[in-house]
Design brief:
The chain contains two helices and six strands; from the N terminus they run E-E-E-H-E-H-E-E. It is globular, with a radius of gyration of 15 Å. About 35% of the residues are buried. It has a single domain, classed as RutC-like (60s Ribosomal Protein L30, Chain: A, 2-Layer Sandwich). By secondary structure, it is of the alpha+beta class. It comes from Methyloraptor flagellatus.
Amino acid sequence: MPLKPLVPAAIRKPFARYSHGIEIPAGARIVVVSGQLGIRADETIPESAEEQAELCLANIAAILAEADMTLADIARLNAYVTDRAHMAGYMAARDRVVATPPPASTLMIVSGFVRPEFKVEIDVIAAKAP
């Protein structure tokens, strides 16, 4: 049984490409991924929020692959940006890779991360039915 989106008709539709809730079937394997930052293996950090988000999602894809999962198995996605100006870049990167139906999601604006050049951080919970 796949992940089931929960988007009740009785409440306002989501503001963007996400589901209000996701039901994870009993017996599914669950992977919790720590927040990923937009930094390359060579320690370089792209300037744009969109490129940083792309790296965050690529890192998440690599972590999920270790558990025989893909980005399509994401049930919950939490994203953090340091300015409203970075929301569009983050959302563009996210919308290119999230599954249909999309996962449950939260986007927050925060004051900063451990290094000032970071603009985006993303963490996820993924689940895959047996």
